[in-house]
Structures are given as C-alpha cells and as structure tokens.
C-alpha cells in the first residue's frame, strides 16, 4: 500500500467545488486499485487514500499537510482553493512530496526550489494561448461584444481573472466599460447591478464560482438587467441559470476541465458510467471539477510504473512529466515540462433560450 494524502473542500463555503473534487479523487484511486492494483517493478501495489476534509479552511489544510508530512507521505493532492493552498503548501518546510493542485495561485512557486515537485492540474489561464484567451476568442466569434463589464471577487484568483479578461477583451477590440471587484462574502449585489445598468454593457463577466454567480444573476434578472450576455469565469457552470426563470437569454461559461454532464460526448462516456456505478447517478453540471484530480492521479499512477519506483520522488517526478497516455484517461493532455501545468484543449458551454451546447474553444 502506497499512502497518498488528499485534502479537499468537502464542506464549508467551497463545498460546491469540493464535493466534486472529492469524488474525482475517490474514483481515480478506485480505478487505479481495481483488479488487484498496479504493477511497479514486478510487484503489485495499491493506493492507501488518506482523504481529509479541510472544511474550506486554511488552518485545517495546514493541519492536513502536517499530518501527511508526519506520516512521510510522498504524494499529496489539494487543497484546491486559492485561500487555502499557499498556507498549506508553505507549511511543508523542507519536505518535497509531489503535490497536485488545480489552483491558479500555485503558479507563484514556479521556478523556485519549493515548487520543484508541484504540479498544477488545470490548463494555463493567462497569456495569448491560455484558457481565458481562447474563451474570449470564442465569445468574440459568437457574440461580437463591443462593451464589456467585469465583476469578479476581490481575491487572488479574481484579480488574476480580471486582469486576463480585461487584456484579452481589449485585444479583441471591445471596450471594458466597467471593472470592479466585490468582497468574497458579498451576497447583496444591488449596488453593482445599478452601476452595471448605467454602464450599459452588452456582455458581463462575473463569478468564477456558482456560489457568487448564481445570486448575482438571480438579482440581476429580478432587477431587469437581462439584455447582456452573461459570462461565467472559469469555475462556474450552467447551474448559475437555475433560478433566473428564463429571464437571461444568453449565458456562456468556460468549462474548467470537460463537461461530464454531456451525454453526447464519447470522451467522458466511460467516466460517466464509472461515476454512476459508484454514486448511483450521472455527474451533474458541476461534475467537471472531478477531473481536476481524476486524470492527474491516474497519470501519477502511470508515472510510478514508468519510473519503476514507488518512493524515488525525483524519478517519479521526471516520469510524470513524460506521461502522455494512461489507463482511464479522459482529458488528452500532459504536464508541460517547463511549467509543470496541464495542457489540454478547452471547452465553452453556451446556453441560449435554455438550449445548452458545448463547443471547442477557439485558439
């Protein structure tokens, strides 16, 4: 048995994400451990999952990391939220386990000794070839916006997205007529909605999680702000439309991994079947979060086999950077050897008058 530590946001404010990432972790370990486990250098092994709920709290994520390090765990998954990851990761001290996380803020450790064994499981968001750029290209092609408003949370991820969206929309020829940040505990968006009405945008970017985007869109619809195209920053989903009663005609979102609720996509068919077999139902619109860890854990499993070792972290790290195919693969895409960040093609979800379609993002 090989211990693998995982700290997820199964409860607390980020539970809307964490319950799904927890499922992805559980499914990946179950997949790797099936049929007696996986073979490394002629011997069969299984993952010993040490799964903890950090309740969306940095202090508990730190405690989880300290527990893992104290047990000499060489492989750690999570946390997956920007508020918890840096303090937890910094608590490692001189320990250098392989760490998998989807959070954008992990990029701050790139090129540093502390980040040597850190792997970011989501595709890059910044730059002219990143996910935001592809998303904006798709929005420009589909809706041709001229006046854009940006309203995102006042945190590290929100600031990163705000800067990226502003830059990419300006490059597309659109004018950014409104760009504000709201405190992460905001529940009343009335003042922002009033300002947005005055700015008269034809496209509004908000969210990055449904826990913000849904109340914002509900309140906007109730206040009569329904004409713009509403856009959910990466991390949001079509579930944000659930209580707008059809008032919002056009909504688009960047699918963070791949839409696993899309029954017509053969890429996710096997994953959907495995998910239903374990949890009794197919994944919902937010199930894409499960792939934040599902593929990466299976890639790590393959890396152990390729390295011929279960404890030589340097060999396993080098092997992980070369993994291109693995058992149970959903998303095609390796880790970039320079950034140690996943590279894969992105999707955009588009809801118009209640009809949902998924398209490949435009590069």
Shape: globular
Helical content class? 25-40%
State the major sheet: 7 strands, mixed
* Radius of gyration from the alpha-carbon trace, in angstroms: 20 Å
CATH superfamily of the largest domain: Response regulator
The spatial strand order of the largest sheet comes to 9-8-10-11-12-13-14
Query: What string gives the helices and strands in order?
Result: EHEEEHEHEEHEHEHEHEEHHHEE
Report on this model:
This protein is of the alpha/beta class and 363 residues long. The protein folds into two domains: 2-122 and 266-320, 3-Layer(aba) Sandwich (Rossmann fold), CATH 3.40.50.2300; 131-255 and 347-360, Response regulator (Rossmann fold). It has ten helices and 14 strands. The protein has helices spanning 15-33, 58-70, 85-90, 131-143, 156-171, 190-199, 210-222, 269-279, 291-307, 313-320; strands at residues 2-8, 38-40, 43-45, 47-53, 75-77, 98-101, 118-120, 147-153, 175-182, 203-207, 229-233, 250-255, 347-352, 355-360. The protein has a seven-stranded mixed beta sheet with strand order 9-8-10-11-12-13-14, with helices on both faces. A five-stranded parallel beta sheet has the order 4-1-5-6-7, with helices on both faces. It has a two-stranded antiparallel ribbon with strand order 2-3. The termini are far apart.
């Amino acid at each position: 048995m090989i211990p693998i530590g995982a700290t997820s946001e199964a409860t607390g404010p980020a539970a809307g994400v964490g319950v799904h990432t927890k499922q992805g972790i559980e499914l990946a370990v179950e997949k790797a451990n099936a049929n007696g486990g996986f073979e490394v250098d002629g011997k069969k092994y299984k993952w010993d999952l040490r799964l903890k709920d950090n309740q969306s709290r940095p202090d508990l994520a730190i405690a989880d990391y300290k527990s893992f390090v104290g047990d000499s765990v060489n492989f750690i998954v999570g946390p997956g939220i920007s508020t918890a990851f840096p303090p937890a990761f910094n608590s490692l001290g001189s320990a250098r386990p392989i760490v998998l996380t989807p959070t954008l803020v992990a990029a701050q450790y790139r090129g540093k000794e502390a980040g040597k064994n850190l792997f970011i499981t989501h595709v890059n968001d910044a730059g002219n070839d990143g996910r935001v750029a592809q998303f904006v290209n798709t929005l420009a092609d589909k809706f041709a916006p001229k006046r854009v408003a940006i309203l995102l949370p006042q945190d590290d991820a929100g600031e990163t997205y705000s800067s990226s969206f502003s830059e990419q929309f300006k490059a597309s020829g659109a004018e950014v007529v409104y760009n504000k940040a709201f405190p992460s505990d905001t529940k009343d968006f009335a003042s922002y909605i009033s300002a947005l009405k005055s700015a008269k945008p034809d496209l509004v970017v908000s969210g990055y999680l449904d826990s913000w985007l849904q109340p914002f869109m509900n309140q906007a619809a109730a206040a009569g702000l329904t004409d713009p195209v509403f856009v959910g920053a990466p991390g949001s989903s079509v579930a944000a439309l659930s209580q707008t009663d059809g008032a919002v005609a056009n909504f688009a979102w960047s699918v963070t991994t791949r839409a696993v609720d899309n029954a017509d996509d053969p890429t996710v068919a096997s994953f959907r079947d495995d998910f239903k077999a374990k949890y009794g139902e197919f994944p919902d619109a937010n199930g894409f979060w499960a792939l934040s860890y599902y593929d990466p854990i299976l890639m790590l499993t393959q890396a152990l086999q390729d390295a011929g070792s279960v404890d030589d972290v340097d060999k396993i790290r080098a092997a992980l950077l070369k993994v291109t195919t693995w058992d149970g693969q959903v998303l095609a895409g390796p880790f970039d050897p320079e950034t140690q960040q996943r590279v894969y093609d992105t999707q955009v979800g588009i809801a118009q008058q209640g009809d949902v379609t998924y398209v490949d993002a435009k590069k």
